[in-house]
Amino acid sequence: MAEYMHICLSDPQYGYYKTREAIGADHKQADLGGDFITAPEISQMFGELVGIWLITAWQSLDRPKPFSLVELGPGKGTLMRDILRAAQQVPDFLAAADVVMVETSDRLIARQREVLKPFNGSVNSLSWLSSIADIPDQPSLVIGNEFLDALPFRQYVKAETGWHEVAISLDQKGNLQLGKSATRLDDQFLPDGAESEPDGSVFEYAPARQAVTEALADAITRSGGIALLIDYGHDRSGFGDTFQAVKNHAYANPLDSPGECDLTSHVDFAALMREAEKFETLKTAITTQGEFLLALGLLERAGALGAGKSPRIQQSLRSQVERLAAPDQMGRLFKVMAIMPKGILLPAFTDA
Length: 352
Ligand code: SAH
Hints:
Elements: H1 2-10, H2 16-19, H3 39-42, H4 44-60, E1 67-72, H5 78-86, H6 91-96, E2 97-102, H7 106-116, E3 125-129, E4 140-145, E5 154-159, E6 162-170, E7 176-184, E8 202-205, H8 207-223, E9 225-234, E10 244-247, E11 250-252, E12 262-264, E13 267-268, H9 269-276, E14 282-288, H10 289-295, H11 298-306, H12 311-325, H13 327-333, E15 334-341
Parallel strand pairs: 1-2, 1-4, 2-3, 4-9, 9-13
Antiparallel strand pairs: 5-6, 5-8, 6-7, 9-15, 10-11, 10-12, 14-15
Bound molecules: S-adenosyl-L-homocysteine.
């Protein structure tokens, strides 16, 4: 499944990120819109509040200068643009920032370069990398929104003989089908309660997401810093199939039209927190997107932006707040996880 996902998303000729305009609003005319919309594209308030959080984090680290402001999978560059715009209030932060965009899609890199051009003079530097392994050896503030879900994952299905890896093959008619391979998952990766799951139960494990978390934790341990990862997923490891395909703002069958749908799964944040906490000097914290944004002043910001504006603008701001923070929209499903050195206090995390 991981290999299927990797080919569908990243094939240099036919891959989804190569050929499709993934991120954007729903447009009636075909080819204008994207397949899904993300928080920074819904509202500028998302990036502004994340920016304020990052500035506070920088202050908690005693204002390192220079430091890397790293974004993982920056899409259209909107989040970084809004972060930097909010940070114009704190010129010292901007002047100390080496902005590092970690991106693999050439098309999106071109777009990000364009969007960030106006900040060329106000940040210390602006650069692009294709791998997190190459981030500079200095304190880093790392942000990633809907990055982890795009990294490949594996599924295991319970049978009498153990948890077998789900594989993708062809049926007799040549159609893609899911099946059970002989490869089994080592028990150490299974969460509590695995023994009492019925046969056919599914467990998802994403070595690529664990590896990114480990690399971040390692970088923070060596050079200092804080990471903030936002995505849909769960704060307790569990069972169930969350493999999903999205095309034109609707769910599709992940085995239909390979290369034409965005493929993702929910992020098991509990597994990532365990990974980061293997580093003795680090701690992690998690909250929901709704609680995070409200704690940072989402309502107050919406009020300030809407003051004296037309009813149409005020209504649009209200609907942005709803989409980002309401429990039945993105507010509860989306989680915000922080990885940081022990002893640091950060806003919006009650247990941190
Ligand atoms: N953060 C953006 C985009 C999310 S989509 C937003 O919130 O709108 C996922 C992003 O991750 C895309 O920019 C995609 O090109 C990038 N990406 C996917 N796999 C990657 C990898 N292995 N390394 C770096 N970037 C990757």
